[in-house]
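Just curious. Protein, please.
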Amino acid sequence: MLTDIHVKNLALIDELDIELDKGLNILTGETGAGKSIIIGSIGLALGGKMDKGFIRENAPFGLVELIFHIKNPKILAQLKAKEIYPEDGQLILTRKVLEGRSISKINGETVTLGQIREISPLLIDIHGQHEHQSLLYPKYQLGVLDAFGGEDSLALLKEVSLAYKSYLKAKENFSSYNMDESQRQKEISFLEFEIREIEEANLSLEEDKNLEAKYKKMVNAKRLLENLYEVHSLCGYRQENSGGNLVGKGLLLMTPLHGLDEGAKNLYEMLADVDNLLNDFNRELATYLEDLEFSEEEFLECENRLNTINRLKAKYGNTIEEIDAYKEDSQNKLNIFYHYEEEKEQAKKVLEEVTLVYRQAAKKLSLLRQKKAKDLESKVIEALKELNFEDTRFEIAFKEEKTFREDGSDSVEYLISTNAGEKLKALQKVVSGGELSRIMLALKTILADKDDRDTLIFDEIDTGISGRTAQMVSEKMAQIAKKRQVICITHLSQIAAMADGHFEISKEVKEGKTRSNIRRLKEEESIVELARILGGAQITETVLNSAKEMKLLADDKKKHL
């Protein structure tokens, strides 16, 4: 049930809050006061498109927040399946609209508009003039019939849907067997080459990782050896200008001089220390080089193996596991090409089998629909009589479609005759806007026990009706409101009188700006509003008394519904 609506900075609305009741919630007000803006705001929060300029002028953003309290275990289970978990049954939908973009949240968590639209049909059912028009379309008419069929129809629809998916898969598989012998031989040669190339590589799991680690270590070792050999060459005694030779020559030159001067002696001893240190360094380096192992042959072997593996990765997969999977898949394809005609015949057989399964499931669904249609026809006629349709006939015509569909092979059309002696005709050829609204209301009454949604919104349900018809429509809405929360915008006093909660929408000009306001009416205020609807601008005592009487009669009628 929708318990709270918060709207800010949208169209004529500066900011308003509405606390709704269970039962029948009526919204009334002068034309242009902003009633449609509230319904539009609800639709916006539920993922609807935003009209350009819907944000209030000079406002930085527009905001709609809806609070639902959900007790229905079926709805809770469906939400849970979509990973949405109401807290103590409370679900808060928020949509903040900025210039060119919007942010939607469910219980404070940011979600996509797609996620909002996915759950919206579970929470609320909005019917305006556009929704009434949808009743003219065969697909919607079929959906109404299936909804009337309840769990039985749902089970068969699921069966048909699964059969249809199997049919599509089998059809696609059979369609793939369309190549000639020359193409088949080319495919065989190509697959054999790929499989042979992978098999000859004789790959093992984790081999690439182990080789990469080994290669990295060997690359480092090679670089270390090359540098150390260069150091040994520079510091040793093998080259004319190497460090060891040059220091040795310098030491020979200083030998005859070190006894002549104390300073020369100190320099000689320092150079002798350098010579000894360099000798020690070269011995240690030579020993280290002898112990450091590096096989150029092993390095090249490792490098070539890695090149082979990487080449296969580039062609068949990013890992050895993927390469093996590619080979297995190619082998399966090859086996099919080896036995192409047998496989094609098997695919044809499977297609025939799933086609038969689909036809049988679709036939069962069609038979159930035809049975349910007879029951729905009688209930619609009965409900229409209660909405002032006298001498009405109503039938559901069936046509079997040749093409397969996920919802079966039936196409239906609602036929009606609203006057005695007239032939049955399609709805769009007979009914007016007001009549279509009443037919939709009749169907909603019939489906009230089948539909899990707690909240229904009716906008323009009173189009083209008045007098006794309006009274009967009001009673029918009150009847629906016994089991569902109903929110209705109306211009008719007969419907407004039935309200369990009555809200008046008005507009005012303040500081040069027009604003819409809404307030809940007390009993006496509701009667005054009824009088306004009845009498227009001038409310006389007679009109006020008529409004009081209308309210009393409505309250008494609700007790006996």
Observations:
- The chain is about 55% helix and 15% strand.
- The first strand starts at residue 2 and ends at 10.
- The mean pLDDT is 87.
